[in-house]
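Write out the 3D structure for:
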Amino acid sequence: MKLRIGKIDFLIGYEAAAAMTAVLLLDRENRIVCCFSAAILHELGHVLMMLLCGVRVRTVKLRLFDILIEADKAPTLRADILITLGGVTANFLFALLLCPFSLKMGLPHLALGVFNILPVISLDGGHLLSILLAKRLSPRRVDIVLHITTFIILLPLMTAGIYMLFQSGYNYSLLLISLYLIAVLFLKK
């Protein structure tokens, strides 16, 4: 599906649309709606920061497991850092605004902001670490440091996910997220 708002093309993959529809239909307590809104506002934080930095957004692609924002030109180093921080900043601001009134609406923003700032490949924190390391290290060394850092973060995260699953008998979300990030790590090779 394709939608154009202003000069930005929004492309939604059929798999993503089908998955979102199924999840929304099955979510009786509207928790997923709060999580989707946190994710959408996170990405809009990136888009807003791109616009503020003078980087023209060409397309926003919503795919099954990620959202890709494409620009006409590569941003400067300063702009790249600001754009990377735009999503988590939006999440933290909305968490700050919403938590006093509704934890159900505010906590997904806080959780997504904290999660995305982790220095893991494919998350904003990993991209930020990559930007900062690229100033001093070769691309090969940056890649090595990122992989080691990702492993150091994901190992205890996955262990906590397994522990939570065994303790609760049903809470597998942290384990699935960890496995997804590990899969992304190997697929990016």
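The mean pLDDT is 90.
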